[in-house]
Input
Amino acid sequence: MLKIPKVETGVFGGSGFYSFLDIKEEFYMDTPYGSPSDKIVIGEVEGKDVAFLPRHGKDHTIPPHMINYRANVYAMYMLGVKYLFGPCASGSLQPHVKPGDFVICDQFVDRTNGRFDTYYNGPKTKHVSSAEPYCPDLRKIVIESAKQLNIKYHEKGTVVVIQGPRFSTKSESKWYSSQGWEVINMTQYPECYLARELEICYVNISLITDYDAGLEGHPEIKPVSYDEVLKVFNENNEKLRKLLFDAIPKIKKERNCICSNALSTAGIN
Output
């Protein structure tokens, strides 16, 4: 039988993160919700054990609408993770949010459909608040690290989460931009909300790679392409590594945030 180690900090991300870690062990896990996207990798960041899981699989074989988000988050829960970082490649919806910038999102808008997005399908029922969906304490830590490292960042922003795998039409992108939303992505929901249902602190770091379908009134800005996403993401991977390596050691063991007792007011059973 697999002996599951206890780890307090976890990271979801792309396969490029493997190169950041001093890997101690890796193993497959199973959960009540099926198998996660790939092996769990336990590595070390500044003397602290960290669990890493590529949400799309190591070779990026799982498209965003097919990710088993419940299994991924629950695997972290089984490891004892209390703090979860969710960096992801994202598009910009506003001219002032430029490729290469980081956005530490504080809100999301869900435009997905058909995803398994709760652990409470009955008979046990919980209605967990997502008014403030990202951990305020983890957000402060990441913002402080970005500031210290002179990384261009935006300390808040709304990410609209689309179903994927297709990119937006120009009309859709115009609509999202007109609402004042800053970021567009395909994986933030239900990942962040499932973490809240398990009382795990979760922070998003959106690495801006493109301007979605272009921006209305800015004809010089071209619609997104997958090749451009990869190019910009790879160019900025080192910045992401520095940010995570600076932020993770700053985490305190005591938790007094809204995440730590999210279930206390979420239902009667």
The chain is about 25% helix and 25% strand. The chain has one domain: 9-265. The two ends are 32 Å apart (CA to CA).
